[in-house]
Write a structure and sequence with these properties.
5-stranded mixed beta sheet; 5 helices
Length: 225
């Protein structure tokens, strides 16, 4: 599948999604891995979703996945959290904003369902049962959203920890290099000081010998007199 086809399929699914529960601005760059590789961005603004085939440098986060995974998410066959748990999608960046992406409700394709003739009027029992079913479904949706949000937050947190660990390792390496350089310079200084001391010692000794020699000559002259 070509890059343009992938972007088009994601756009068709995502731009029809319901983002009314998102009040913040979110911009995420999506990197397609494997077939049809390339980058595009998904932006949520004014509670609407937009997909464009460009890089987004001032982004809140970044997502990495193959075409199959991205299209499955756009068609509502898989959620972002499920993709992360299955190891087919990686996310990094502002985990708070990335978590909000779970609030986007993808409209799934409607399936034709054969139904038998139904009575024109609903009984109170039927209405009550339908209401109970709807309530149960709503609770399940809430649990699912919470679970998916947690998975996405954990994934983003892990990415942040890895970034921090790499930065700490780099700093530690640079500090060690500086320490080694200081040790080398200190050794050189010590050797120079030692050499100076030896030189001074030689000069003092030579001066002492000259003084001694001069004193000897003076004593001989005094004795002759």
């Amino acid at each position: 599948m070509k890059y343009e086809e992938i972007v088009l399929k994601v756009r068709e699914g995502v731009e029809e999604a319901d983002a009314r529960d998102i009040f913040e601005h979110i911009a995420v760059q999506v990197d397609i891995e494997g077939e049809g590789s390339g980058a595009f961005y998904i932006e949520v603004a004014d509670r609407k979703v937009v997909v464009e085939p460009y890089d987004y440098y001032d982004r809140d986060g970044r997502v990495f996945a193959n075409a199959e995974t991205l299209i499955a998410i756009a068609e509502g066959k898989m959620t972002i959290a499920e993709a992360i748990r299955n190891g087919v999608l990686r996310a990094e960046g502002n985990h708070d904003k990335l978590t909000l992406l779970n609030k986007i409700k993808i409209k799934k394709a409607k399936k034709a369902v054969k139904t038998a003739d139904k009575p024109k009027t609903k009984t109170a029992k039927t209405t009550k049962a339908a209401a109970a079913t709807k309530t149960a479904a709503t609770k399940e949706d809430v649990k699912k959203d919470a679970k998916e949000g947690k998975a996405l937050t954990e994934a983003a947190g892990k990415a942040v920890k890895e970034t921090v660990a790499k930065a700490e390792a780099k700093v530690a390496k640079e500090v060690k290099a500086v320490e080694n350089e200081i040790k080398k310079e200190s050794k050189v200084v010590k050797e120079e000081v030692k050499a100076v001391k030896e030189e001074v010692k030689k000069e003092v000794k030579a001066a002492g010998e000259k003084v001694k020699a001069a004193s000897g000559k003076a004593e001989k002259k005094t004795t002759k007199k």
